[in-house]
Amino acid sequence: MILSDRDMLERVATHSLLIDPFDPECVQPSTYDVRLGSQFRLFSSHDMTHIDLAQKRRVETQLVEVDELGFVLHPGEFALASTVERFRIPIDLAAKLEGKSSLGRLGLVVHATAGYIDPGFEGQITFEMSNVNVVPIVLRPGIKVAQICFFVMSSPVNRPYGTAGNRYQGQMGPTESRFWDSE
């Protein structure tokens, strides 16, 4: 079951779901619009020829802070970004992140594969952004780029996301891959 606008508002009011900062204008009938933060992480191709998943070499990214002029995502480029909002998902909910349809129709892909958020997660959500259009897209902090919906679990989970040393618990800002970190 997906939470309705009424249920989201009740959960936020009773503090069983944290969305900070919370904006009632972002509440949709079955989703909450999330906004783009001001930081981006970029991969540098000048010092690496490839990413080898078998090697225990962390892939470094460069953190870039942008102002209201925004960030230009060129065709074929990939960047990490994050939500303005910080979330705390209770153990009886899971969440799913999806790009906004209007932006997808312009060629903006907001997440490559990681759209699922487990019960117990706390932190900002990292976007895996790509431009599949043939022209650049300017991304300005604060724009609504995605939406999140919340699913009620059949029962509260036994092992919430944060209990097993999960790699991304508490993340703030765009967080690079922790693929090579042991759990």
From TrEMBL:
GO terms for biological process: dUMP biosynthetic process; dUTP biosynthetic process; nucleobase-containing small molecule interconversion. It catalyses: dCTP + 2 H2O = dUMP + NH4(+) + diphosphate. Pathway: Pyrimidine metabolism; dUMP biosynthesis; dUMP from dCTP: step 1/1. Homotrimer. Bifunctional enzyme that catalyzes both the deamination of dCTP to dUTP and the hydrolysis of dUTP to dUMP without releasing the toxic dUTP intermediate. The record marks G115, Y116 as: Important for bifunctional activity. GO terms for molecular function: dCTP deaminase (dUMP-forming) activity; dCTP deaminase activity; nucleotide binding. This is dCTP deaminase, dUMP-forming.
